[in-house]
Request: fold
Amino acid sequence: NYIESLLNRGRFVFRKITPRQNVKLLIESLRPIKTQFDLIRLGSKGDGGYLIPDDINEIKACFSPGVHLISAFELDCLNFGMKVFMADKSVEKPNLEISTTEFDFIQKFIGCTNNSEFITMDQWVNSSDIDNNSDLLLQMDIEGSEYNSIINMTDELLNRFRIIVIEFHSLQDLWQPRFFDFASLAFNKISQSHTCVHIHPNNEDGIDKRLGIEIPRTAEFTFLRNDRIKFKAQAKQFPHLLDNDNSNKCHVSLPLNWYDEN
Reply:
């Protein structure tokens, strides 16, 4: 393993880090592809808007854990005829100026267990009135709990999501072996059934640069289920024309090592 030496309180502290090759291979496994579907933007122009493939016909419902101050993405899903299910323990209700009969909200965090504060993805979806054979959309922004929530999800439920949009946090910690192993479980699980079609770094948190590898600290990933893909090519346009910065901080583009094979 590579060894990173840190000067701490006048003494050298040696800390083991993830081998560079392991980090590089994980990044390569997540390189976005271009499919037969163009990307469209749902939600707001800035934070709270996401790019997804234009393959939303007959998706019955959007499940959106992590309620944002702006719920424009969920509103667009409603306008496309989807039922919308939202969950977040930290807010009393979503910021949607529509009748509560038009969406479903539970005041719970998504996690690995079911109790008064938490609910698993499987329990949440299974308790809804959505037909078991219908396709779904997942849009998840739960501030770091996305990894354990994905790992805890059954393969059967994961396969029901035609499109998955997740904001992954603390990606710079891939250099920490324990976090790398943990995050890899989540990414590898998604990759069994889905392929990454877009990545947008959140410019609020910037880029980590280490050992010649650049990693967005926070990034929005879009995945499409493999059975929907009939054409594959390397995606090369970053940022996409529909991408917009999340905040007023300096613009951040997806680093070249995330999409270029050279």
User: Anything to note?
Assistant: Residues 177-193 form the longest helix (17 residues). Residues 89 and 219 are 23 Å apart (CA to CA). The chain has six helices and 17 strands.
